[in-house]
């Protein structure tokens, strides 16, 4: 796989490149946001490792451009010295898939890349045909607003269905409560975020999103929720 490394520090960039190549991937270094944009125009990459602070722009601006241009198809991991909880929350809220703190540790970076690639592969396993989304044992039919789990129909409210559809279409993606309110309820910050918690609890129960059934709907403290496939306990 081809990994883009957006890092203006040459020593840090070379370190990341060496780590990526040790994992069996190709690492391509871009020292500036401008060079990165030009590089992706010429040849796409499979994953982006990027610093938050750039010499010709901010990480949040570039991330917004990445999501606008490529959607969620390009996984993004921030590599940064900013470790404050508010900074981490901001990165994830803006659309980063994960982050690694400096100084960079090979074992941690390798584990996070592997986990992200695994989640992406699981998400790709979801098949959309004839308007239906099928992910493992769950089938959602948006036109009919129907849900089926293990061949059995499950009754969902409109918002429960929309929430389940969003999470299943974005396996492994961490959504904060505010983002879920905006995407599912189309509401702003004036709404109590406990509304999200209540609906998450309901779809967890109704769709059996538990490890015993091969699912994990995780509450990430201070950040939000992530749905992913796990090895079944049964």
Helix count, DSSP H or I runs of 4 or more residues: 8
Structural class label: alpha/beta
- Domain module tally: 2
* Mean of pLDDT: 86
CATH-defined architecture of the largest domain: 3-Layer(aba) Sandwich
The CATH C-level class name of the largest domain: Alpha Beta
Give the helix proportion (percent range): 40-55%
- Going by CATH, the homologous superfamily of the largest domain would be Response regulator
Shape estimate: elongated
Placed side by side, the strands forming the largest sheet appear as 2-1-3-6-7
* Poorly predicted spans: none
Give your account of this protein's structure.
With 234 residues, the protein is α/β, with parallel strands linked by helices. The chain has two domains: 2-121, Response regulator (Rossmann fold); 126-229, Orthogonal Bundle (Arc Repressor Mutant, subunit A), CATH 1.10.10.10. 42% of the residues lie in helices and 25% in strands. It is built from eight helices and 15 strands. It has a five-stranded parallel beta sheet with strand order 2-1-3-6-7, sandwiched between helices. Helix 4 links the parallel strand 6 and strand 7 (98-101). Helix 6 packs across helix 8. The radius of gyration is 19 Å and the shape is elongated. The mean pLDDT is 86. Pfam families: Response_reg, Trans_reg_C.
Task: Describe the structure in brief.
Keywords: DNA-binding, Phosphoprotein, Two-component regulatory system. With 234 residues, the protein is of the alpha/beta class.
């Amino acid at each position: 796989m081809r990994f883009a490394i957006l890092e203006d520090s040459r020593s840090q960039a070379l370190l990341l490149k060496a780590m990526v190549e040790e994992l069996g991937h190709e690492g391509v270094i871009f020292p500036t946001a401008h060079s990165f944009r030009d590089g992706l125009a010429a040849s796409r990459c499979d994953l982006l490792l990027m610093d938050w602070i750039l010499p010709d722009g901010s990480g949040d601006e570039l991330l917004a451009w990445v999501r606008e241009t490529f959607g969620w198809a390009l996984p993004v991991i921030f590599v940064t010295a900013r470790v404050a909880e508010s900074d981490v929350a901001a990165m994830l809220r803006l659309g980063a898939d994960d982050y690694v703190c400096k100084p960079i540790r090979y074992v941690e970076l390798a584990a996070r890349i592997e986990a992200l690639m695994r989640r992406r592969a699981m998400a790709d396993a979801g098949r959309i045909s004839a308007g239906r989304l099928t992910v493992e044992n769950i089938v959602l039919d948006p036109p009919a607003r129907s849900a089926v789990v293990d061949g059995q129909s499950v009754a969902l409210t409109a918002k429960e269905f929309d929430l389940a559809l969003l999470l299943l279409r974005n396996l492994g993606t961490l959504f904060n409560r505010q983002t879920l309110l905006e995407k599912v309820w189309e509401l702003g910050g004036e709404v109590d975020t406990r509304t999200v918690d209540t609906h998450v609890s309901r779809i967890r129960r109704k769709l059996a999103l538990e490890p015993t059934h091969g699912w994990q709907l995780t509450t990430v403290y201070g950040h939000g929720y992530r749905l992913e496939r796990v090895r079944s306990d049964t």
